[in-house]
Specification:
five-stranded mixed sheet, 4 helices, globular
Length: 123
Amino acid sequence: MGDRALMIFTDGKQVSPVIYLHWSGSKVPDLLEQHKALMVSRGADVPYAAARFVGIVHATMPEQNLSLGMWNADRRIRTAVTRSDADALTEFSHGDAGVVVVDVTDYSWKAYGGYLSSQRGQQ
């Protein structure tokens, strides 16, 4: 149900809350391009990167109070992100687009457990 994606931003040490997109999984690469352009002057700032991404998604969603959520990443997810543990991140996926981890040091991204994991354009 939906076209879900779970978004997580990290600099390798800090890990953002998990951002849940219910209907925007296929839009993630384009949303991340917009996000990268917006963040170019900010640098590697995990809290601001996550907040700005939420802002971009919210502004582009037709349902202004649905299909976008966030929650704190638990210890297991934080550990999987900082260790780049593909198995744990794949297990965390809801399917659809998968779990997308964005490295704010260069705004590259990698997806796990969904169709975006095989998409070219990841760095």
